[in-house]
């Protein structure tokens, strides 16, 4: 249904109608925001109007008091003046979206204003809207106050743009900024009856069905009568446009694909005329300008000028690209030099740390490897001294010097053994403490969510009590009274069970208490206290007194099974279990037990296998990263690895000849094959890292290097194929002719071969 031009007789009626429309829009927008944004602290109320002047005219009819009426007339008059001023410019009459954030409740109000209005006009508008005096309203932008005489255009608001202000009250106790509360929604009936005058005295009642509009009625402008002040609005189509019928074929148009919607105010076309001087009309020529044509430029000159400009731009761009390239090269060089410096510093620090660790191991030996290192150093020192004596002395002096050297060596051995005894005592104390801590640990299990749960049982609590009591018994810093208290607690603890062991402990406790009361010195009580600690440890290890210890004690073997795995040691002439013998991979018979081999090594060979153990450990760790199927690395022992490193590879890097075993590693020669003695190479750590990154070995290394490596692989295959355990992993027992094409290996020609040829 179309609507003709409607006449608004009075501004009050028009403003009242627009006020109802405004309230409906406010209420609908507010309900949408309340339904969808209840969780947000900032509520936005959107009000769409054409100009701020229209809103000021609407608010004139709301106020009841005379003072408010005068303020509204002033705003109305200023709005008309601003309209008259802004009508001369398209930009000034353009609108912009203004968002007001009410502080401190952070409610949002959205209003459309013309960008020619000042901040004072905004304050007056919101003072009427919020029922707050305009002089206590403070408007800020980016936490800075905005002057009242500034317009939105002065602040930097573009036509059809958007800006957000923060509005707060200078007197929040009396005047608080509250959001707009929309009025109740007006429900229009679905059917109305309209009386239409068809003739002078004839009227007809027409039933009109109201169609609910799904879009807002567009404001298309209008006119205002200068005398009667009546407003005439342009008509708008209320019905939706008809939908085009579907032809069944998809139609594409370049216009629809590249369409760009843009709203911009335009002025109507204006006719202009020019007046010339004639008879009866004089036109001054004081402001006329004389325009003379410039030099004519041909097409060739224009194109040459453009070509020179392009060449200039290209030269500058190429210079910029060259500078960027040189800067990147310079930065790469600086980074490489810094990396080299860091690597040099790192290697130096690692070497210093290695020397400090080795010095600490020699000065404070704790493990068997530390004592092997000491005996190996003693052997080297003795060899150097013998060479020096043999070179410098002769005859009786040489014999006397050798006897003195033997005495010094004996003293060094005695000192090393004293360190061994002290280390054994410390290690024994640590082992006892670790055993007690293990018995006193609570039961643990991991739940499905990853959390670890701990639970103490009556047995773990008993073990924890005995552990704490044992720690108190072995303390030597207690005073006399504290020691008596500990002994009394121990006596009550062991008296819970009656047996020969507990009776001995009680007798020893009474004896120490008697000696303490007599004032005996602590140094004279050390033996007695050690006996008490030893018997109490035996008490702790008894499952009848400490049930938890049964889970960690070794179960005695069945005597019937001992005959099966017992062998005679040819060194100590004692029968030992098979686990007490260290067998080599190529051994065919049982020889010496571990204890006799260690004693023989310390007395004669004095070899240190710690470096080879480190190389073997690194090899096993690297192969475990490739996959758990590696077998040969776990079959090799320190003696086999020593033969592979010292004999085959000469204890030096195959590329650089570096001889420090601390920096050498055994890695794969061909990384796509499993590690084996015939598929390995001895390199430094840096060389090994670079070697594993190679894709084609034939292109990376020289022919001489490849020939030497393959020759060592052939020797390793021949040596390790004699070991039964490793021979099973050797699939190809014979070397392929293509693999040995570069090796200097000669083979005799048999007679059968000659006959065939």
From TrEMBL:
Hydrolase as UniProt keyword: no
This chain belongs to which protein, by name? IQ motif and ubiquitin domain containing
Task: State where composition is biased (Basic and acidic residues).
Answer: 30-45
Name a single GO cellular component: acrosomal vesicle
- Per the record, a Pfam family? IQUB
Q: Name one GO biological process term.
A: flagellated sperm motility
Does Coiled coil appear among the keywords? yes
Per the UniProt record, the source organism is Cyprinus carpio carpio
Provide the coiled-coil residue spans: 330-357
For the region Disordered, give the residue spans.
Answer: 1-45, 60-91
Q: Which domain of life is it from?
A: Eukaryota
